[in-house]
Amino acid sequence: MVESNAKSETGRQPVPVGVLGQFDHPDALKRAAAALRDAGFRNWDVHSPYPIHGVERAMGMRPSRLPWLVLLAGLTGIGLALALQIWTNAIDYPINISGKPLFSIPAFVPITFELMVLLAAFAAFGGALVLNLLPQFGHPVFCSRRFVDSGRTGFFISIEAVDPKFDADQLPALLSSLGATHTEVLFDLPGRESYPGWLKIGLLSVCIVAAVPPLLVAAYRAAPKSEPRIHIIQDMDFQEKYKAQTVSPLFADGRSARPDVEGVVALGMAEEDEHLYRGFLDGKPAEAFPMPVTMPMMQTGRELFNVYCSPCHGRVGEGGVTGIISARAVKRQEGTWTMPLSLHADSVVDQPVGQLFETITAGRRTMPSYSAQISAADRWAIVAYIRALQRSRHATIDDVPEEIRSNLK
């Protein structure tokens, strides 16, 4: 209801904006809702302090379209995620990772799932607001003092003036005939804003003020500066250091990157023993080991051979497709794959131990260097185990220890 001085202050005549009916029981509310549904009313609603089972059927409400919006958004997320990953990983910048297919659905699942959930959540939240015509800053029922005072305990039906069958003179009698204990025509001033003008100005002002700091930050970041940026937290991403090809006033030549001092060797890097570290003696591959060959050394060589060498050459060094990597490359028909050589071939058996050591150290063809992964002593251990594998092909009874010869059959 409008105040009595509304007309004198504004010069406008209040107009009906709706009709409100109050009921004393939820069953009466449901029966009245079913009658209004059958009568063809469209813009109306029921108000209850708690959910009433079956009231949506009494009102004739259709199933919500929100699940379909969520489904559409989820499918859109799936399509966008797959398209993005296919474009980046298989078309625009393809990367061959261990021979895995460029188009790999299992690898795409995490990103696809996350984007599907993200867009579906946005659709559920936004769709609920849009389908319920929210946010609303005002409603005709708030013109009723009775509704405001007893809205937590009463049962109401409101019919808005925008309904095609709205008639302010006849609807109160219709609601009374349907069981309403109280009816009321709701009036309001025509053209009244749904929320105050000062609120509009305040919200606009807040938005403008909130946009100023990001704009100032963006302008500062885009402008050229003669001093380093302000860095409050001095962590490792911002250090006082010289970068490559920069000038330093600390040295006479002005270079920040200093050349190595002649004759200085890093701790532990003095590899003066050519036999031990390079496998050579007097410029030729060594014929003997630089240290005694012991059983612990052979055991170490066996373990490292199985880790680094057997994936390509096989557990007994036969080469070909006996190694798992070689077998996979042949199965996938990799055009650039070079078949590993058998360590029992005459060309390998005839090599000095120093040449085998140099091959492990520097690599050959598609075989990489293992000098960074395996120490010099362990490389010699692998060479010793390779020699044992080669000898095992032509072993005699004299190569078997006496204490276990009786176990042979």
Task: Describe the model.
By secondary structure, this protein is an alpha+beta fold. It is 45% helix and 7% strand. The chain has helices spanning 6-10, 26-39, 55-59, 66-92, 105-131, 145-150, 171-177, 197-222, 274-278, 295-313, 324-331, 346-349, 353-362, 376-392, 402-405; strands at residues 15-23, 44-47, 155-160, 182-188, 280-281, 284-285. The chain has a four-stranded antiparallel beta sheet. The protein has a two-stranded antiparallel ribbon with strand order 5-6. Helix 10 (295-313) packs parallel to helix 11. The chain starts with 5 loop residues before the first helix and ends with a helix.
Write out key terms for the chains shown:
single chain, 409 residues, alpha+beta, Cytochrome Bc1 Complex, Chain D, domain 2, 2 domains, four-stranded antiparallel β-sheet, two-stranded antiparallel ribbon, 15 helices, 6 strands, 7% strand, elongated
- Major sheet description: 4 strands, antiparallel
Report the total helices.
15
What's the helical proportion of residues? 40-55%
Unreliable residue runs = 1-8
Topology, element by element:
Blueprint: H1 6-10, E1 15-23, H2 26-39, E2 44-47, H3 55-59, H4 66-92, H5 105-131, H6 145-150, E3 155-160, H7 171-177, E4 182-188, H8 197-222, H9 274-278, E5 280-281, E6 284-285, H10 295-313, H11 324-331, H12 346-349, H13 353-362, H14 376-392, H15 402-405
Antiparallel strand pairs: 1-3, 1-4, 2-3, 5-6
Helix pairs in contact: 4-5, 10-11, 10-14, 13-14
